[in-house]
Amino acid sequence: MAKKKDFAKATPWLSAIGLFVLWELIVRIFNIPVYVLPTPSESIMVGWEFRAAIWMHALQTLYTTLAGFAIAVVFGVILGALVGSSKAVYDAANPLLVGFNSVPKVALVPVLVMWFGIGTVPAIITAFLISFFPIVVNVATGLATLEPELRDVLRSLGATRRDILVKVGFPRAMPYFFASLKVAITLAFVGSVISETVASNLGVGYLMLSASSKFNMPLVFAGLLVIAVMGIAMYELFNIIERRSTKWANRGNPAN
Amino acid sequence: MSNSFVELNNVRLRYSEGDDLALETTNMKINKGEFIAVVGPSGCGKSSLLKLVSGLMPPSEGTVIVDNKEVSGPLKIVGMAFQNPTLLPWRTTLDNVLLPMEIVKPHRNRLRKHRAEYEDRARKLLASVGLAGHEDKYPWELSGGMQQRASLCRSLIHEPDLLMLDEPFGALDAFTREELWDILQNLWMVRPFTVILVTHDLREAAYLADTIYVMSKRPGMILVQRENTLPRPRDQETTFTQPFTDLVHELRSHIRDVRAA
């Protein structure tokens, strides 16, 4: 049993290592030139060489991502609560939200640059714009799918709308909310890196753009790996928070 | 002034303007502390009747009077339980039972200060339905029958004058169901409250109710009002006696007529 469990724990690491080995082998066997696809070992070595620069740019990206994400959480929860608890707001806001979400956010970056200049601010706003939608949808869904019988039970006790929201709505929406955070944080990285690539002189997106203009492909891939690692770390963080705070929703799963 | 606790006067219901009638002209008088059961084919508006009396739905015509006042919005004194126990999965059984206390006045203002007293009350109620020792378990750790007992406790903890039961035992196995009949009868005999039980189980109606109403197909209307004078407390033996089986047969033939009509 213990062996089986150890193996299950090791699988994500094994698959990651497997991917790197496969990548390394393909590049070496087919003799792919480094300016097309560098090997992972080269990328990691170059990444180590430029660690000071990468560290600085990664911190910038992490900062803009988290700032945008934080705004998205606040905004998403408020809008989600409004949309989820009122049919009228839902009808009014839904087409706008869907329409807005269909607009590619990269197309908005030039607009943001006109308004706010280049650098940190448009990156934060892009991260926010791209990541609030799943939070709104999930919070609204959690609130709107309250069982009608339960609502009847509470209303016949004299519960106000606020009572129902506080006692049942929000606790019930928590698993939906935390699930959306995992999606939103990864989207926020997409937003900030897009903005940095288009309009910034700081951040991993900018680092990759300037590296590729110098044909330093290993450094480009080092940047990609750094983004992936940050994304996984944040995703895992919210995964842990989710499991801790909504244990009741993961019942029947002893691994939790 | 009348001496009945719940009164429906020429009540008709359509769900929205221009719809067919869901409930045809209905008149009912229920005394304080009376246990009534409403039986009828599915979709006959039995559940709508509960919503009308509890004020969750306004009648299209006619008036609903509870405790000498016309009902104009949700009543605040009602306990409700449904086929689905609807317990909150993030709360323990004890906290689920205490939920009404966080909402009903004056308890909601007293709960924090007198927590121990209320917990004690909830524990006693849980013990009376055989759930002692399960207070700190979560709903999913309980069987279906235990969840339904907890749901019954939640509907009674604030000692409502009016209890609405919408097929509360419908999803349970026969043994558990009959056990819960006894539990409900006991609770009701200790402190009589007015009960409106909606069910499609004729034996359940015959076992529990003082008065049984048989409703027609949609648009629902009351076809038969049958007094049930079997002595209380009724128990398993009662269900094998002639008067009980006669009553069930009689109800069954009414239902047959309704379905054939």
Automatic annotation (TrEMBL), chain A:
Pfam families: BPD_transp_1
InterPro entries: MetI-like (IPR000515), MetI-like_sf (IPR035906)
Cellular-component GO terms for this entry: plasma membrane
Domain ABC transmembrane type-1 stretches: 58-238
TM spans (from-to): 12-34, 54-84, 96-118, 124-146, 176-195, 215-238
UniProt keyword Repressor present: no
Subcellular location: Cell membrane
Keywords assigned: Cell membrane, Membrane, Transmembrane, Transmembrane helix, Transport
GO biological process: transmembrane transport
Topology class, membrane: Multi-pass membrane protein
Main location: membrane
Family from the record: Belongs to the binding-protein-dependent transport system permease family.
Protein name: ABC transporter permease
TrEMBL record, chain B:
InterPro entries assigned: AAA+_ATPase, ABC_transporter-like_ATP-bd, ABC_transporter-like_CS, ABC_transporter_ATP-bind, P-loop_NTPase
Entry keyword annotation includes rRNA-binding: no
Pfam families: ABC_tran
Residue ranges occupied by any ABC transporter domain in the UniProt entry: 6-242
Entries under SMART domains matching the protein: AAA
Keywords for the protein's UniProt record, in alphabetical order: ATP-binding, Nucleotide-binding, Transport
MF (Gene Ontology): ATP binding; ATP hydrolysis activity
PANTHER family, A to Z: ALIPHATIC SULFONATES IMPORT ATP-BINDING PROTEIN SSUB, TAURINE IMPORT ATP-BINDING PROTEIN-RELATED
Recorded family membership: Belongs to the ABC transporter superfamily.
Name the record gives this protein: Nitrate ABC transporter ATP-binding protein
Organism: Thalassospira xianhensis MCCC 1A02616
Classification lineage: Bacteria, Pseudomonadati, Pseudomonadota, Alphaproteobacteria, Rhodospirillales
